[in-house]
Design brief:
This protein is α/β, with parallel strands linked by helices. It is about 30% helix and about 15% strand. It folds into two domains: about 350 residues, Alkaline Phosphatase, subunit A (3-Layer(aba) Sandwich), CATH 3.40.720.10; about 60 residues, no CATH class.
């Protein structure tokens, strides 16, 4: 059919996808969930690692220093030179400064969703709503990538969450929504730096036990064929996929080894850091090397300070003490991940993205602490903080075959707003999809109402982050 030449690009994209899916709405959701877009996955070997800074990192005190700003904005940390002429970070990040030629900074990401849940949904799924909501209404990009790139014969999950990106307090900030639970991640929880850490269910190597499990699954599959089964929400499909995934992990030595950090030399584990964030990044590298497409890992917990996240309001943390406390762990883990990917020749295949839901207020606030702890004075102590700031954020990109050693965009002299190359989270999502070979302009998912919804109603891949030749 001929589509109208619409000037509004968002409407044009939705119209095109809906036209392509005409007639699908009569199917049940489980059947629709198994449909793929007609587009070809052009780069099936690519992968993405997301390092998520829950709560939002201060861009001024890390990746976008403003040494000439007034004192009420700039913070105490001095800028330092990097391996890229003209690119400076703050003194908190010396190891990243030494590998700046291996990443690019996007300093002009902006949106208008100022709450943690809404900001997270904006970055992870492209949800345009400004209001916080208890759970996602759109599938996140990780679930969509898992769905689009599914291979039934793979021995290892396509999507693994290492210290999962999934919640902010009582709010769910990531999930498969109407795509269905079958596309949720394989989750790894706990402190990977502990000597006794293990992944439950992956230590059984008895061949007789594996054989019994195989026979049990075969019987289940036979029984499933007897009744006509309705699975409108995809729950049974999810159970089957997770069961089969567990069987493959249990019976495949190669898959089990991918999840076993003790296979790494002590020198490599030391390089990443013998702390939770370092070992999470090492696990991420092992998994993409073994064939996992999507790995997410969240930097939170005790390494963040008293309130266990990056939400550095003065009531929570002394923002500068908090950043100074967590920076060595962050700097070591992320720089080790970037360097390791390049040294192992994984830099073209694997794209690394480091971000949170937004930046922090350029103007420093002073409020009484709500309690004593790491990076926070006793209750009632007046201390500095930075609040939510979706109007400007810096994201780090490495690998993925992109042009590295560059800064894209710029904020004003106080770090308040982009003044060059303003981009949106939807543009970032388009960039991720492009790396994974997913046609974000023509791919849709049918929602619970039976309507096809584009996976990305708006957004264009960031050309400056194109794969280098």
């Amino acid at each position: 059919m001929n589509l109208p030449n619409l000037k509004n690009r968002r409407l044009h994209r939705r119209h095109a996808v809906q036209a392509a899916l005409t007639g699908f709405t009569g199917l049940n959701l489980a059947a629709v969930g198994r449909l793929r877009a007609a587009s070809t996955i052009s780069r099936p070997d690519t992968a993405v690692i997301l390092v998520w800074l829950r709560g939002g990192c201060s861009h001024l005190d890390t990746f976008d220093p403003k040494p000439e700003a007034p004192s009420e904005y700039r913070g105490p940390f001095l800028p330092i030179d990097t391996t890229v002429p003209g690119l400076q970070l703050t003194e908190l990040l010396p190891q990243l400064a030494r590998c700046a030629h291996r990443f690019s900074l996007l300093r002009s990401v902006a949106h208008d969703a100022g709450g943690h849940p809404a900001g997270s949904l904006r970055v992870l799924s492209g949800d345009p709503d400004r209001a916080d909501k208890p759970r996602p209404k759109l599938p996140d990009w990780m679930s969509i990538a898992n769905w689009q790139r599914h291979r039934p014969d793979r021995l290892i999950p396509g999507y693994v969450a290492v210290n999962p990106v999934d919640r902010y307090d009582s709010f769910v900030i990531a999930g498969s929504a109407y795509l269905g639970p079958a596309w949720e991640p394989f989750r790894i929880t706990g402190d990977l730096s502990r000597a006794d850490f293990h992944i439950p269910g992956m230590s059984h190597t008895d061949d007789r036990q594996a054989t019994r499990l195989t026979e049990r699954f075969r019987l289940r599959d036979e029984l499933d064929r007897l009744p006509a089964r309705s699975d409108g929400n995809g729950a049974m499909e999810a159970v089957h996929r997770f069961d089969n995934q567990a069987l493959r992990l249990l019976t495949s030595p190669e898959a089990r080894r991918a999840f076993d950090l003790t296979q790494e030399p002590d020198s490599v584990r030391d390089q990443y850091g013998r702390h939770a964030w370092g070992q999470q990044c090492l696990m991420a590298r092992r998994l993409v090397e073994a064939g996992v497409d999507i790995v997410t890992t969240e930097f939170d917990g005790r390494l963040c300070g008293r309130v266990a996240n990056w939400d550095d309001h003065a009531v929570n943390h002394h923002v500068f003490q908090a950043l100074e406390y967590r920076a060595p762990f962050f700097d070591q883990a992320v720089s080790a991940l970037i360097n390791d990917l390049y040294e192992r020749g994984l830099d073209r295949r694997v794209l690394v993205l480091v971000t949170g839901e937004f930046g922090r207020t350029p103007r420093i606030s002073y409020v009484a602490s709500s309690g004593a702890g790491v990076a926070s004075g006793p209750k009632g102590t007046i201390q500095p903080g930075r609040d939510h700031w979706p109007r400007a954020n810096t994201m780090l990109f490495a690998g993925g075959g992109i042009q590295t050693g560059q800064v894209i965009g710029a904020t004003d002299q106080r770090g308040e707003d982009p003044v060059e190359r303003r981009v949106t989270p939807q543009d970032v999502l388009a960039t991720i999809y492009r790396h994974l070979g997913i046609d974000y302009e023509h791919t849709a998912v049918v929602n619970f109402s039976g309507r096809p919804v584009p996976i990305l109603p708006d957004g264009r891949a960031i050309t400056e982050l194109s794969r280098s030749s």
